[in-house]
Amino acid sequence: MRLFWAQGYAGTSLDELARATGMNRPSLYNAFGNKKSIFRRAMARFSDRMGEHSLSQLHNHADLAEALKAYYYGALDVYFDAPEPLGCLYFCTAAPEASEHSDIRDEIMGAIRLLDDAFTQRFEQAQAEGQIPEDADPRALAALAQAIQHSLSIRARAGAGRRTLQTFAAQSVNLLLSRPSDAVTG
Predict the structure, then answer these.
(1) Distance between CA 132 and CA 113 in Å, rounded?
(2) Number of C-beta neighbours around residue 7 at 10 A
(3) Best label site of 37, 73, 150, 151, fewest CB within 10 Å?
(4) Measured between alpha carbons, how far is 16 from 7 in angstroms, rounded to an integer?
(5) How many Cβ atoms from other residues are within 10 Å of residue 115's Cβ?
(6) Contact partners, residue 90, CB within 8 Å, separation at least 6
(7) Phi-psi bin for 6: left (phi > 0), alpha (psi -120 to 50), beta?
(8) Sign of CA dihedral 36, 42, 46, 48
(9) Mean pLDDT of all residues belonging to the chain
(10) Across residues 72-81, what is the average pLDDT?
(11) Domain span at residue 63?
(12) C-alpha span between 78 and 62 (Å, rounded)
């Protein structure tokens, strides 16, 4: 997973995968199938890690702002779990492959839908609890919440520091949950 995450699908050779796994190429194929199959397994493993570290946080906090911050901080834990921060395997590494590989594109869209649905459910819960206004659009807020994650991912991969990104995440949550007139005034 780390090799693909750092180098991308096209940038990772079968010989490198064999060295990383300690298996020879025929054994690698017998165990996991072709290179794309191995890449898709790496994507699934990454998805599991994100679920453990961040997605679960959306419902571990009663306060919506705290839940969102915990979600983003959990994502940052994953993004920074390497000598050089790599961002999101889906949004930074797999996305360039989407134009050539429809199955990878489908997996990315599946992840986007999963996150949109998870965020939407959390915003609907917060709305029912009176934490956000009744006229707020949970689906639109979910798309914006996911856009914040994409930005965190790209910024992490580009070299932004963890503390800077934590501040960015907290400020983004505050802005996301403010009324438009509140955001302008302050």
Answers:
(1) 22
(2) 14
(3) 37
(4) 10
(5) 22
(6) 43, 46, 47, 107, 108, 111
(7) alpha
(8) positive
(9) 91
(10) 94
(11) 44-180
(12) 23
Residue with tokens 């956000």: 132
Q: Is residue 144 part of a domain?
A: yes
Answer whether residue 60 is part of any domain.
yes
The answer on pLDDT for 66 being more than 90 is yes
68 in a structural domain: yes
Residues 6+ apart with CB under 8 A from 158: 87
**8 A C-beta contact, residue 163 and residue 86:** no
Q: pLDDT, tens digit, for every residue of 128-159?
A: 999 999 999 999 999 999 999 999 999 999 99
The tokens for 96 are: 């360039």
Separation CA 108–CA 76 (nearest Å)? 19
Measured distance CA(17)–CA(77) in Å, rounded? 25
User: Which CATH number covers residue 91?
Assistant: 1.10.357.10
Q: Cα(162)–Cα(143) distance, rounded to whole angstroms?
A: 23
Q: Residue 61's closest CA among 53, 51, 71, 52? A: 71
What angle (nearest 5°) sits at the alpha carbon of residue 108, between those of residues 73 and 149? Answer: 25
Shortest CA distance to 125 belongs to which of 66, 179, 62? 62
